[in-house]
Design brief:
- The structure is a homodimer.
- Chain A is built from 14 helices and 31 strands.
- In chain A, strand 30 and strand 31 form a beta hairpin.
- The first copy, chain A, is an alpha+beta fold.
- In chain A, 26% of the residues lie in helices and 29% in strands.
- At the A-B interface, strand 1, strand 2, helix 2, strand 3 and strand 4 of A face strand 1, strand 2, helix 2, strand 3 and strand 4 of B.
- Chains A, B: Its EC number is 6.1.1.15.
Chain lengths: 565, 565
C-alpha cells in the first residue's frame, strides 16, 4: 500500500487520557481511534493486526474441530430471564427496547443464545461432543472503561462453547482447548501463564485464566519460581508447614497498648516481629458472626473463608457489630476469653504459634504470651490466608513469586448449570433425557492486541513480532522530489509487491525526520530506506526491533528479505 | 469436517413463517436460525458461505485500493445530531442509553462516524482521495422484518466511504467502485442489473442500485430489451413521442356519469378506450394545491412531480380539499373551467390529446370532446408519469420491460452534504480550507447470500455455485455399520482432506434416505456416495446442480475432482 492514500493518522503528542503504553502507541501510531469512552474504531493498520491475531485463533480452533459460526448481538430478554442473568448481570449488561417495546440485551456473552440453539438443534448424544466458536463484538457497560483496548465497552472476543453428554467428554475438550489457547498465545509471541482461577458465581468447576505478564495488568498471579504452577492469587492454596515452634509457654499477661490499632503499631510498641502477633477479624458469613484468626503478617483470603463454609456471602462485620459482640473495636480483637457461642476459625499457621500477642477485646489492651490451646479454643484450623511471595509453591516445587497479569483468555468448565436452567437435554443411549454439560472458552481479541504492544515496544514505538505486524516491510523514500530516489523506490515497491511481500511504501512528501519517526512508531519489522545512495542502487535495510542495519544493493533485497522474514 | 460433530440441524418441514425459497432453504438446510424477529444466527454452514462471499468482496475492495477498517456499533448521539439524522432517521434507528444515561445509536450506517474520523485525521488534500471499507453488523429496526435474511434487523453489510478534494475525483472512484461491484456480483454468480436509482433525501448526485433479478424482489426495475439501460421504476424518464393525433375537434359536451368514479368505469360507461380519458389528481406540493393531469392509462410519478417543483414534500390532497377547491370529489375532477389561480401541470402525453373525456368538477358529470388548448390551459407540460412496459427505452434502444429485483448493493455520490454539516475540510494547494466530497457504497452481505439461494435452488434444495458452497465435496457413507463402506469412506475422507479438498463427510448413523435428502437440501456441488460396491472400490460421483452421475473407482477420484472443481 502507498502511505499517501492509506489512513494512518500518526500523532506526535501522547493523548491526555492514555495512561499505559499500548493505549498511547496504538493511538499515536494510527491503529485505533476512540469514538466514545471505551468504544474504538480499528483504523486500517489496527485492522490488519487484528485480522492476523484472528487468523491464528481461527487456525487453532479449526485444528481442534471447533465449528465457526456467528450469533447476533441483539438477544431477547426472555433468554436471559431463563438463566436468571437478566436480573443478576447488573448494569454491565447493555439493554434496549425495540420499536414494539420488546426488551433486548446487547450480547455481553452468548451462553444463553448458544444454549437455546443447541437445545433446539441437538436431540441425541450421538451429535456430541460439539464445539462451536465465533468472533463477535461484545458489549459491556464497564463502570470505568480505561487503558484503551484493555478495558473497553465494545470489543472483539472469540468465544467458544462445547456441549457434552458426560463430564469426561467435557474434560477432554477442556484439555484440547487449553492446549489450543497455549498455542495461540505462544504464536502471538506473548510471555504468559495459564493460571488457576476462581470458578465464580455460575457454579462451574475447573477454570484457568491465560494471563499475559505485564506490570500494567490488573490481576496478581502467584507462580512458582521452579515449576509450571501459577494461580490467580485468590486461588493459590497455602501449604501447611509441618515445623512447629519450640519454646517454654510463658504466663499470659494483659498489657496496655494505648492508641495502637494496627498489627504493625502493636508489634513496634511491644518490640516483636509482625509474625509474633495474631490478627483477629470479625466476618459475617451468610449473616453469622465468625472470628477469623491469622498470623499478624498474613492476610485473610475471604474466598477461602467462603469456600470453607460453602457460603453465599462473606463480609467484614462493622465496628459497631464487633463492639456489640466482643466489647471492643477493630484494634483490640482477639480469640482469648470469648463468649461461648462465638465461632472461631484460624489459619493453619496459627496452630504452631508460641507466646504471641493478640487483642484483649478491650480497647487499648493486648495480651502477650498467648498460646493456642492453652489460652483459646479454635473451632477449626484451615488454609484461610492469601499466599505470599516466598511461600513454598503448592505443587511442592520451588517458592512463590508474584507477577501482574493481563487476562487475555479464559477456559471454563461450566458443567450443567446453563443447560439445567434452560432445559437443554439430549437422549442418551438408553433413550433417556440427560442434561448436557457445557464448557465456555473466551479470548479477548482486541485486548490481546493491546497485550502484544505492552510486551513489544521501546521508547520510540511499537516493535511488532513479524507475523503480527501490519506489514512486513516499510519502504521509505526520503525525498520524493529527487528523481533517482523516487524511481528506485517505485521500482523496489513494484518488485516486492509482485513478489508477494506485504509492503507499506511511504511515498508522502514529508521530511525525512517525520518519516523515520512515523516508521519507528508504527513498528514494521523491516525498513528499507532509499536515500542519498539511490543513484548507485544502494539502500539501507534496518531491523526495527534490534536496530541492526546494513547497506545493501537493491538487487540483493529480495534474497536478503527472504532470509529475514 | 465430520457431519456427526458439526452443527447442521436440517429440518424436513418448511418453517411456518418462511414465505420465500431462500428463507425456507437456509433454515431447513441448517444454515441459519432465527433468535428474534429479523435477528439470525449464522450456523457453521451459513458462516462458511458468508465468509466466501466476504472474501470475494474483500478482494475486489482491496484491488481498488480501499483500506479495510472497522468502526463500532455504538455511536454517540452527538454525531448523529451534527447531521440532523438523530431526529430524521426515525424509529429504524435503534437507540440506547448507557449507565451514565448518555444516548447512543446502534450503527444503522456509518457516515457520521467515518466523517468524524476523517475530519480529525485528514488535514491536507495530499492525503486524498481516500477510500475505506468495513464488514460490520448493522442494526435497523424494520417495521416489518421478513423473508429471512432479506429484510432483517441485524445484518452484515460491507460499507465503504470515499473522501475527495474535488467532484472529479469522486467521479473516478465512483466508477471504480461501480466496476468492483459488477465484479463482485458476477463472481457471486448472480443475474443482476445496475439500475439508476433515486438519490433520495440527503441531496446526493448519481446513484446506482445493484439489483438481483428475482420474482421475490421488493423493487421494480424498468430495463431495455435491447440495451444495458435499467433504472428503478421511479427513476426512468419517459421519452416524449413526437407523433400528434389528428382529427377534427368536436364540440365540448357535459354528460352525466352517475356513480362512475374510476377511469375504467367512466371509459366503459362512455364506451371509449382508457387512453381517451384524462386523469386529474390534486396534489399538495410543499403545501400548495396543484392539479396534475395525465392520460387515463398512465400513473403519476410523484418523484418526478417533486423534482419538477424541487419540492420538499408532495402528497395527495384529501377529498375534502378537492371539494373545497373545485367543488367536486375524486371521481369527477378535470382541468376544464378551473378557478384562475389553480395551478395545472400535465404530463407531456396530454398535449396531443384530441376529443378526450375528463371530469366536469361536478360530482357525477364528465366532459366529452375535451381538447387541450381550446378547453383548458396548462401551466406546464412535463414528464410526470411512471414508465410502462412497452414504452420506448429512454436511451433510444429497444422497449421497456419490467422485472422484480432484490437490492444487494448501492453506490452513491453523496457530494459534500455530510462533510458540510460536520465541518470536514482539507487545506487545498493554496492552503485554503475546502469541504470534502464523499461517496458511500454498500453491499448487503447477508442479503446477498439469500439472493444467491433465490437464484440457485431446485425443488430438492440449494444448488450452490461451486466457489460459494460451504464445502466442495459431500462424502456419504450409506451404511456406516458395514465395514467395507466405513473403511472406504474413511480412506477417501483422509485422502481428499490431505489433498486440500473442502470435504464434508456424512459419517452419521442415519438411513441412506435421510442422507440423500439432507445432501440435496444442503446443496454441496459434488457428492461421493460409498454404497454397495464399496468392496470393489467403486463409488458414485454425482453433480448436485445437473444431476449427472457416474460410477468411478476410488483411485480415480482425485483426478476426476480436479477436473470438476
Amino acid at each position: 500500500m502507498r502511505q499517501s492514500n492509506m489512513l494512518i493518522p500518526t500523532l506526535k503528542e501522547v493523548p491526555a487520557d492514555a495512561e499505559i503504553k499500548s493505549h498511547q502507541l496504538l493511538v499515536r501510531g494510527g491503529f485505533i481511534r476512540q469514538i466514545a469512552s471505551g468504544v474504538y474504531s480499528f483504523l486500517p493498520m489496527g485492522q490488519r493486526v487484528l485480522r492476523k491475531v484472528e487468523a491464528i485463533i481461527r487456525e487453532e480452533m479449526d485444528n481442534i474441530g471447533a465449528n465457526e459460526m456467528v450469533m447476533p448481538a441483539m438477544q431477547p430478554a426472555e433468554l436471559w430471564k431463563e438463566t436468571g442473568r437478566w436480573n443478576n448481570f447488573g448494569p454491565e449488561l447493555m439493554r434496549l427496547n425495540d420499536r414494539h417495546d420488546r426488551e433486548f440485551a446487547l450480547g455481553a456473552t452468548h451462553e444463553e443464545v448458544i444454549t437455546s440453539i443447541i437445545r433446539d438443534a441437538v436431540k441425541s448424544y450421538k451429535r456430541l461432543p460439539l464445539t462451536v466458536y465465533q468472533f463477535q463484538t461484545k458489549f459491556r457497560d464497564e463502570k470505568r472503561p480505561r487503558f484503551g483496548l484493555m478495558r473497553g465497552r465494545e470489543f472483539v472476543m472469540k468465544d467458544a462453547y462445547s456441549f457434552h453428554d458426560s463430564f469426561d467428554s467435557l474434560d477432554q475438550v477442556y484439555q484440547k482447548m487449553y492446549q489450543a489457547y497455549e498455542n495461540i498465545f505462544r504464536r502471538c509471541g506473548l510471555n504468559f501463564r495459564a493460571v488457576i482461577a476462581d470458578s465464580g458465581a455460575m457454579g462451574g468447576k475447573d477454570t484457568h485464566e491465560f494471563m499475559v505478564l505485564s506490570e500494567v495488568g490488573e490481576d496478581t498471579i502467584a507462580y512458582s519460581d521452579s515449576s509450571e504452577y501459577a494461580a490467580n492469587i485468590e486461588m493459590a492454596p497455602v501449604t501447611a508447614t509441618s515445623t512447629s515452634e519450640q519454646g517454654e509457654l510463658k504466663e499470659l499477661k494483659e498489657v496496655a497498648t494505648p492508641g495502637k490499632r494496627t498489627m504493625q503499631e502493636v508489634a513496634d510498641f511491644l518490640e516483636h516481629p509482625l509474625d509474633k502477633g495474631l490478627k483477629a477479624l470479625m466476618f459475617k458469613v451468610d449473616g453469622n458472626l465468625v472470628l477469623v484468626v491469622t498470623r499478624g503478617d498474613h492476610e485473610v483470603n475471604d474466598i477461602k473463608l467462603k469456600n470453607l463454609y460453602k457460603a453465599e456471602t462473606v463480609e467484614l462485620a462493622t465496628e459497631e457489630e464487633t463492639k456489640a459482640a466482643l466489647g471492643a473495636g477493630f484494634g483490640s480483637l482477639g480469640p482469648v476469653g470469648l463468649p461461648d457461642d462465638m465461632k472461631v476459625v484460624a489459619d493453619q499457621a496459627v496452630k504452631s504459634a508460641v507466646n504471641v500477642t493478640c487483642g484483649a477485646n478491650k480497647d487499648g489492651y493486648h495480651y502477650v504470651n498467648v498460646n493456642p490451646g492453652r489460652d483459646f479454643k479454635v473451632d477449626s484450623y484451615a488454609d484461610l490466608r492469601f499466599i505470599q511471595q516466598g511461600d513454598p509453591s503448592p505443587d511442592g516445587k520451588g517458592t512463590i513469586q508474584f507477577a501482574r497479569g493481563i487476562e487475555v483468555g479464559h477456559v471454563f468448565k461450566l458443567g450443567s448449570i446453563y443447560a439445567e436452567r434452560m432445559g437443554a437435554t439430549v437422549l442418551d443411549e438408553q433413550g433417556k433425557a440427560k442434561t448436557m454439560n457445557m464448557g465456555c472458552y473466551g479470548i479477548g481479541v482486541s485486548r490481546t492486541v493491546a497485550a502484544i504492544v505492552e510486551q513489544y515496544h521501546d521508547e520510540r514505538g511499537i516493535t511488532w513480532p513479524a507475523h503480527l505486524a501490519p506489514f512486513q516491510v516499510h519502504l521509505l523514500a526520503l525525498n520524493m522530489k529527487k528523481t533517482e530516489q523516487k524511481q528506485l523506490a517505485e521500482k523496489i515497491y513494484d518488485s516486492l509487491k509482485t513478489a508477494g511481500v506485504e509492503i507499506l511504501f511511504d511515498d508522502r512528501a514529508e521530511r525525512a525526520g517525520v518519516k523515520f519517526a512515523d516508521s519507528d512508531l508504527i513498528g514494521i519489522p523491516l525498513r528499507i530506506t532509499v536515500g542519498k545512495r539511490a543513484g548507485e542502487g544502494y539502500v539501507e535495510l534496518k531491523q526495527r526491533a534490534t536496530g541492526e542495519q546494513t547497506e545493501i544493493h537493491e538487487s540483493e533485497l529480495l534474497r536478503q528479505l527472504n532470509n529475514l522474514v
